[in-house]
Design goal:
The chain is an alpha+beta fold. Strands 6-5-4-9-8-7 form a 6-stranded antiparallel sheet. Strands 10, 11, 12, 13, 14 and 15 form a 6-stranded mixed sheet that branches. Strands 17-19-20-22-21 form a 5-stranded mixed sheet. Helix 6 runs antiparallel to helix 11 and helix 11 packs antiparallel against helix 12. It is elongated. About 5% of the residues have low confidence.
């Protein structure tokens, strides 16, 4: 019974793993491009200054004035270490880091180029070798990319600012100044490598999921609980998804006296402090929580070499009451220290949410699994009376249904997130549905709880999915029973409201605090997360209800007062009731 929905879930998880791997490839490309761009800018600035300086040299001007090609070649050898090229006369625009005009008696005599965009420059800008396989190159014409390994033909210019497919490569490009009408710095990676990595991730997720299915089936047949717990924990780890890292890194440079010397635009955006308010001030005074950052983030001597391997640390920063988590690395640069960081606040929240979800699912699985295992062992090892056997088999059936409902909730939540859940658009009679749900609720409720139903004389047909509507109403009735531990009356009411049919479930239970009434529809949110009142649940039920009602064109809400009970209502589109129907 559990194998089919779990197999579907495994397939969905494999697809998510494949998409995550492709997204990681885009992040690697953006990181490689940012690193190359950060190296390009100071190199271009230095090259431009060199070009201006060389163009102002009297020997250079004399060589151009006399059009002495031999003198020009000797001067090029003199400046060989700086990558200087002397070109006499008027030339078409050429791509280079720096360019300066040489004028003799007011007339243009030639040009000084510094740092042409060639393979040597590409190798200087390429990040150090690692495991990512990133490549960097230049595009100065629409038919090729120049990389450190050679030229790659392309059909057109790459699109600047975002990752895109170009021929057989995945490319991220950004325009750079190079003294030509258009030049772009690009990071690229073969699409075949990205597809291969995504396929490996998808198959890995599928294989792990199949192992989990086998473990759950063995649990049903009373296989050793230690193996089952191992398989289940693996399934829970696979269910937790990682959050994409934020693009763009903040950079801070602090000198040996602790004074901030560099504060880039990304740092302004992430932390919210202007460079004018931070630069040339002591870091401890200008940056909140700087003492914590310094104490937790180790400073590497050289990134990626020897004992100075860069270690990323996540540290909290309190900004005017707003908690911000920064994922940061630090590297020594001469007498200064460079700090690079990104905003990891959202990742931190999701990590907490994942931990909460894993803890919740673990707790929810433990009770039915223990019951199933104990009942199965008792039936196998003892000669019991018939009535006791029937009771144990009934408990096994009940706990199996509980496991099935738990897996169904997780499966539906995954389908809602991926947009693959199908909802039938049809008309149905709500009366039988409501009475069936109330009958099921009465069977679950204790003797101290009564469930009453109120229906109008004439009920219009509802536009929506009958089974999804049944699922929503069942969940609301189950919540009313669960959050009424002292019993009481539960009213299920159906009423026509204009072009809508309203379903309401009112209880006399614990109620919901005003500040929590909007949050109860969030995924994984529970009113009793520590189960101090013994009320379990995954925190997915009301989230699923909200999404199902929205998918059918309706709306859902709650009204509650702590200690006085709760009314949960949802509305779906309905056919108008004719006068003849009302009269009959």
């Amino acid at each position: 019974m559990l194998a089919l929905p779990l197999a579907v879930a495994v397939w969905a998880f494999g697809a998510v793993a494949g998409k995550r791997e492709r997204s990681n490839a885009d992040q690697r490309l953006v990181h490689a491009l940012n690193t190359a761009a950060d190296r390009y800018q100071p190199a271009a600035k230095t090259a431009q200054a060199t070009a201006i300086r060389v163009a102002s040299n009297r020997r250079v001007q004399r060589a151009f004035a006399q059009n002495d090609r031999g003198a020009m070649r000797r001067l090029e050898r003199t400046y060989a270490g700086e990558g200087v090229v002397l070109l006499p006369g008027a030339i078409p625009p050429l791509a280079a880091l720096g360019r300066a005009d040489v004028k003799v008696r007011g007339n243009l005599a030639g040009h000084v180029l510094v740092g042409p965009l060639d393979q040597r420059l590409v190798r200087r800008l390429t990040p150090r070798a690692g495991s990512t396989g990133d490549r960097v190159g230049f595009v100065v014409s629409s038919d090729r990319i120049l990389t450190g390994a050679g030229a790659i033909p392309i059909p057109s210019w790459p699109e600047s600012g975002r990752a895109s497919d170009l021929s057989s490569y995945r490319v991220v490009a950004v325009r750079v100044p190079a003294h030509v009408p258009r030049a772009e710095l690009v990071a690229l990676e073969p699409r075949s490598e990205i597809s291969a990595a995504a396929t490996r991730a998808r198959w890995l997720a599928g294989l792990v999921g199949l192992g989990v299915i086998a473990a759950l089936l063995l649990i049903v047949y009373a296989v050793a609980p230690a193996i089952a717990r191992s398989r289940l924990s693996r399934q829970q780890r696979d269910q937790a998804e990682r959050v994409l890292a934020h693009l763009g890194d903040g950079v801070i440079v602090v000198d040996s006296d602790g004074v901030v010397r560099v504060w880039n635009r990304a740092a302004e955006t992430i932390i919210g402090l202007r460079a004018a308010d931070v630069v040339n001030r002591p870091a401890e005074e200008a940056i909140p929580g700087w003492a914590t950052i310094v104490s937790f983030v180790p400073v590497a001597n050289r990134p990626g070499e020897g004992d100075g391997t860069t270690t990323e640390e996540t540290v909290p920063v309190d900004l005017a009451g707003r908690e911000l988590w920064l994922s940061m690395v630090a590297v020594a640069l001469d007498e200064d220290t460079v700090y690079a960081f990104r905003d990891a606040t959202h990742e931190r929240r999701l990590e907490n949410l994942r931990s909460q979800f894993v803890a919740t699912i673990s707790h929810e699985l433990r009770t039915p699994l223990a019951s199933l295992h104990g009942a199965a062992l008792t039936l196998r090892e003892h000669d019991l009376p018939a009535q006791t056997q029937d009771d144990l088999l009934a408990m096994i059936a009940e706990q199996s249904n509980r496991l099935a409902r738990l897996v169904e909730e997780i499966l539906i939540a995954g389908q809602l997130d991926s947009g693959s859940l199908s909802v039938v658009a049809d008309s149905f009679d709500p009366e039988g549905l409501v009475r069936d749900v109330v009958a099921a609720g009465r069977a679950r409720a204790g003797t101290e709880t009564t469930i009453d139903v109120t229906l109008p004389a004439v009920l219009p047909k509802v536009h929506g999915d009958e089974e999804r509507t049944r699922q929503v109403l069942l969940n609301l009735v189950d919540n009313a029973i669960k959050y009424s531990p002292s019993g009481g009356r539960i009213d299920v009411t159906v009423a026509s409201v204009g072009e809508w049919l309203r379903f309401s479930v009112r209880d006399e239970g614990l109620g919901i605090p005003l500040g929590e009434q909007e949050r109860i529809f969030e995924k994984f949110y529970r009113l009793d997360p520590d189960q101090r009142r013994g009320i379990g649940g995954t925190g997915l039920g009301l989230y699923i209800c909200r999404e199902l009602v929205r998918s059918m064109g309706g709306r859902i809400w709650v009204e509650s007062e702590p200690g006085l009970g709760t009314t949960a209502s949802f509305e779906l589109p309905a056919e108008p009731v004719t006068a003849a129907a009302k009269a009959s």
